[in-house]
Structure formats: C-alpha cells, structure tokens
TrEMBL record, chain A:
Tagged with keyword Iron-sulfur: yes
InterPro entries the record matches: 4Fe4S_Fe-S-bd, 4Fe4S_Fe_S_CS, ET_IronSulfur_Cluster-Binding
Domain of life: Bacteria
Pfam families: Fer4_11 (PF13247)
Native source species: Algibacter luteus
Protein name: Prokaryotic molybdopterin-containing oxidoreductase family, iron-sulfur binding subunit
PANTHER family: PROTEIN NRFC (PTHR43177), PROTEIN NRFC HOMOLOG (PTHR43177:SF3)
GO molecular function annotation: 4 iron, 4 sulfur cluster binding; metal ion binding
Entry annotated with the keyword 4Fe-4S: yes
Domain 4Fe-4S ferredoxin-type intervals: 254-283
Alphabetical keyword list: 4Fe-4S, Iron, Iron-sulfur, Metal-binding
From TrEMBL, chain B:
Protein name: Cytochrome c7
Source organism of this protein record: Algibacter luteus
Doubled CXXCH motif domain ranges (all copies): 110-154
A Pfam family reported for this protein in Swiss-Prot or TrEMBL: Paired_CXXCH_1
Cited SUPFAM superfamilies: Multiheme cytochromes (SSF48695)
Amino acid sequence: MSSDNKKWFSLNLNRKKKESSGTCGCGKTSGGCGSYSEHPQMTDEEFAEAAINASIGEERTKDGFDQVFDVKMDRRSAFKKLTASLLIGAGAVSTSCSVISGDESKEKAQIDWEEQFKGNYKLMDDDEKKGTVERLMRSYELRTGKNISMSSKNAEDDVLFGYAFNISKCQGYMDCVNACVEENNQDRNSQMQYIRIHEMKDGKGFNFNEADDNYYHEVPAEGHFYMGTQCFHCDNPPCVEVCPVQATWREDDGLVVVDYDWCVGCRYCMAACPYDGRRFNWSKPEVPETEINKNQHYLGNRMRKKGVVEKCTFCVQRSRAGKNPACVEACPTGARIFGNLLDPNSTIRWVLENKKVFRLKEDLGTEPKFWYFMD
Amino acid sequence: MMNRKNYIYILCCTCLFVLFSCRHGEGEYHGVTDRIEAESKNYHGTSISSEKYLEGIKTIEITEGEHTFLIPERKNQITSYACTECHSKPLTQMQGKDAKNAHWDIKLVHANKNTMNCITCHNPDNMDNLTSLTGNNIDFNNSYNLCNQCHTKQFKDWKGGAHGKRLAGWAPPRASMTCVNCHNPHKPHFESKWPERFNTETVKERE
Ligand code: SF4
Ligand code: SF4
C-alpha cells in the first residue's frame, strides 16, 4: 500500500519511513505545523493512543447510529475535540518521521483510522478497494482471532444479471428465505428478511393489500398462490436517484448495491423504492459466530452495523463467482431462474423470449430486472 | 464578418445541443429490453464459468432440438444398478413366498390405473433399460425421454430452462437437473408441508 496516492489521510504508524530529521511531513523546517515538541516526555506510541482516544476514542466502540445520535457535545468538548484532532494530525505527521515497531493495538488503531476516513467505495480504484477489503479482513482477525475472506470483485464485462420467478411453481415453502438469511449474515432477531413471500387468493389478481404475508400453516393452501418479492435491481432505480450521499448505486452488471460504510441511514431510498425492496437496521445486527458466512463481498454479505440500509444483492459474493443466488439454489420447486441477460443462449433469455413474462408496476419506468411468469 | 462569426457560433451551439439532447442520463436505451437487445448483439462470452462447481459430478451431454447441455448421469446413482444383477430370472419365478422382498417401498401414485402400471415404463424382459410406449428401449441415463412422451409442455420448458433447476451456477456450461432429480417417478407430485420458517412480519411503520 503506498501512501502517496490516496483519497484519505493515513497515519502511517507502522511504516518505517526514513526522512531527514528536522523536516516534518508538512514540509516546513521549523515550528509551524508541529506540536510534537510540546510532548517530548511521551513516547510515540503513547501519544498516538492518547490522540486517537481524544478524538475518535468513543466512536471506536460505537456503531454509526450511536455516533450520530449519542453525542453529548458542548462548546468546550467541541473545542477539545477540535484541538485533539489537530493534535492527531500533527502527531501523524511527526510519527511518520520516526520509526516505531509494530504492535497489534497500534495496527488496530491504524486500521480504524484509515477505515474512518476512507472514501466512497463507488469512487475507489481497484487498489483502494483491495486496501479496504484487506483492512476489514485484518480487523476481523484482530478482533476475533478468526479469518474471513472478503472479495472486492468488480462487475464483469458482458454480464447483466436478471431474474425470473415462476408463480405457478412457488408453493410457499420458504426455503429461499432461510437460505437468504444464512447466506447474507442477516440479523437473526429482527424481521430483516430480504425476500417476502405473499400468499394470495386465486382469482383476485396481485392484490398486495389483501395478501397474507405472515402465514404459518401447511402449504400450499387450497385456493391460493404464492409470489415472492425482493429487490428487483431496477435498471432505472429510483432509490439510487434519491440518495443524498451516493451510498447506493447501480453497478455495471446491473446489481444495485449499498456501501454500508458510506450510508448515513437517512432512509430516503426506502421511501423511494416502489417495491419495498430495502431493509433498515433498527438494532445492531447480530449473528452467532458459528453461523457467520465467511465467504463475503464488500458490497454483499459482510457484517453490517446499526443504522444502515441493506437489501438483496442477488448474492453478489456468489453471482460474480458464477454461482446462483442462495434463494435460487435453495428453492425445491425450481420457481427461481437466474442468469446473464446479455448471453443469447442463457436460460433466462429463453424464459424472457418464450414465456409470457411481466414485471410489477411496469408503468413507473423503473425497469426492474425481475420478471414473473407462469407455466 | 460579424454575421459569419455569429452564424458559425449558432451552428456550433445547435450541433452541441443536438448531440447532448440525444442522451438523457442513463437512457441511451428506452428500457432494459432495448439495452439487452443492443448490448447482447456483440456478446463475446464471459470469463466466469461454473465448471469448478461441476467437479465430482458425473454428467453426460445431451442435445435436444437447438439446446445442448449437461445432465447428471443417472445409472451410477441407482442403488444396485444393473437390475439384472438380481433380475436373473423371469418375474414370475421371482415372486412368491420364498423369494426375497424387494421394491416393497414402491407404491405407484402416478396417473391412474387405466393409464399406467409398472410395464408402461419397465420391460419385464429387459430390466436394464426403460421402455417407451411403443416398446423401444430408453436408457436410464436419458429417462427424460420416457417422461416427455406425455409431459410435452414440461419437456419444452425444461429444454429451454424454464422448468427445473440448474445443477451448478448460472454461468456456462449449462448443467440442468433432469426430471428424476426432483420428481420421484413413482410418485411425482410435491407433498404439501409446513413452511421452513415463519414468514416475515412486516413492520407497521406508517400507522
Ligand atoms: S427494487 Fe427498490 S431497492 Fe431494488 S433497485 Fe428497484 S427501487 Fe431500488
Ligand atoms: S439510507 Fe443510506 S443508501 Fe439509503 S438514501 Fe440514505 S444514505 Fe443513501
């Protein structure tokens, strides 16, 4: 990782960088930038720890939501924080001039710092993506002693993902929902499921107001049919349009994704989605350590925090590797079909061309890439 | 002189305007179907493959109409194939009090008795193969050819990929499960059962 060409500022606590003493990072040869000389009695290590604690100490243990709403800040503490962050900046500059040997807590602080100030994933180049993914993996290892694998695989050329759902086949078994929850490390307590299965009365059309979304009886029930909804990965997604910080966007292979670290939790996108495709983390999502799916993608099933929005990603960690999404694989009736819309020989294309397909609320112009059909 | 300058200026502006007004946002296409049509014209294939997910699964390649794809080998999945390892004598001699019980768990729940019985699909004189309605041999590996004698609509959808499930991922090569991987041929319907879990309780947010 080079520190020369980054969109965020690095502390470089562990980097051994030799520079002529007397010149600090800011380029001045005397006084000006440094408060380093004011703390001659502290070791570099202590200083770094103290400075980080002073400025972002509390935030390190809090998730995004707490950070925003749990701040008790009067003018004095605001000033204190401001001074502290100036100190930390100065400290970083001066520590980069000196040589310290690595140690775990410092590495953790370094990672937290870089993660805190990293940019939007959407704007990162490949090296930066790799960097953040490596930091997240390392940070997980430091915190839990266990390894995860996280991918930052980009969209492939000549791929546009699409989905088809066979209404006559779905029996309401809910295997797909189970598979989705497990695959995507969803919170086990909240009703976070990306997929909803609606039980509808025959002969009433798609009447979502009268559909039973909470059924629990033997299925299929006489005189009913079942249909699933989830994020439809619209080609013209209104949820992307409204995001004030561009934390959600459409990738080149058509997946609509969220950068959980950039999302500010305003929930505009939830209001904009006409399909109820998005879910909000009202509480801190928790998954038992043994059940965590360790095959992760930055834009997919990596661990989320409280106060951010998430949704179906067509299992980006699976689909970009050539697998079917977990729901497709789990469905015992074959009601779910997934594939590459740009491949003229793909099965999804055959379905679109040979079955009578339709989409929900087509008149809105959202162009969902999720079609329904019947036998 | 001034006039000419103005004229050129206006011309340039018009050109630029025309250029930009043709592109509205994402919308080089008027819908996703247009996008698919346009972008798949020069489709070159992808580097993504599901070959590695097929490792360890024995498959055979079949060609039906314009579709060529893989299906799992069947014979090695049937316990104690070949059938003639047991069926060495004619059936009449194998039935009776002192004969060993076999196939006691098979009960035919498929169509009605007038339409189907054992010998609709099995040939008592040639146990190692299935038999078509007209008495031709059908290999156990290609058992879909037995089913498609009646279930023509399902067969058509299966060939195209609208019926049934994929064996590996979505990526090529295509490998699809065959009829008997999901349906028990002696009892092909899906049982009703309890759902795997509670369905979502939608949070009532706006009340
Ligand atoms: S279904 Fe909703 S969340 Fe998904 S892309 Fe469309 S508007 Fe966005
Ligand atoms: S909740 Fe997050 S993703 Fe949605 S609009 Fe707000 S910042 Fe963007």
